[in-house]
Design a protein that fits this description.
- It is a single chain.
- The protein has about 200 residues and is mainly alpha-helical.
- The protein folds into two domains: about 100 residues, de novo design (two linked rop proteins) (Up-down Bundle), CATH 1.20.1440; about 70 residues, Alpha-Beta Plaits.
- It is built from eight helices and four strands, in the order ααααααβαββαβ.
- It has a two-stranded antiparallel ribbon with strand order 1-4. A two-stranded antiparallel sheet has the order 2-3.
- α2 packs across α3.
- The longest helix has 18 residues.
Length: about 200
């Protein structure tokens, strides 16, 4: 049976596996499955996959609840049992592989342990480590870092800060910081993790 719209389930799975977060993996897989190889001929896939996508988006965007986890598990179980083709069953198996971990529950609590779901993380500058060199400011293409580069003959400079609403979490600032003053933390965390 030829795969529809070019992409094969095996290719989607391989691409999804490149992500670290199991919830992100599942969402990516479901979105690509919807856009490509899903035939839509049986009810479990046609309705279930779309519903699972909504529920997984809730989890990655910090709006998830226990009922989302329950619904995703139910949908995947129904697909595994009732899908008429191997593609639907493979999709269900892929999702169910990750449902046994605590990662889904952590997303309900507003944490992504793998720091991949951008709605659940923030980049923060640790003031005590910031040497006010301006490398992060220069690297930020989104103009999300505020502050002024330190000049040798002046004093009274404040450490750089990240404006969260502008930050796209691209990671360029972390790459250039010479003192590792920029860390990724949970949005709900009061203090940076691992500091």
């Amino acid at each position: 049976m030829a795969e529809q719209k070019g992409k094969k389930v095996e290719d989607i799975k391989k691409e999804a596996e490149a992500k670290k977060c199991p919830v992100s993996k599942s969402l990516y897989y479901i979105e690509e499955f919807l856009a490509g190889p899903m035939c839509g001929k049986c009810f479990p896939c046609e309705m279930g996959v779309y519903e699972a996508k909504i529920r997984l988006k809730n989890l990655t965007e910090g709006r998830g609840s226990e009922s989302d986890i329950f619904a995703i598990r139910r949908i995947a179980s129904d697909m595994l049992e009732s899908s008429r083709c191997k593609r639907g069953k493979d999709t269900a198996t892929f999702i169910l592989e990750w449902m046994g971990t605590d990662v889904f529950k952590e997303h309900v609590e507003g944490r992504c342990p793998d720091r991949e779901c951008i709605s659940l993380i923030e980049y923060r500058i640790i003031p005590e480590k910031c040497i006010i060199c301006g490398d992060c400011h220069d690297a930020c293409k989104d103009d999300a870092i505020t502050g002024e580069k330190k000049k040798g003959y002046k004093s009274g400079y404040l450490p750089f800060e990240i404006r969260q609403k502008r930050c796209t979490k691209c990671g360029e600032c972390i790459k250039v910081c010479p003192t590792n003053a920029i860390v990724i933390v949970d949005v709900k965390a009061k203090e940076p993790v691992g500091v």
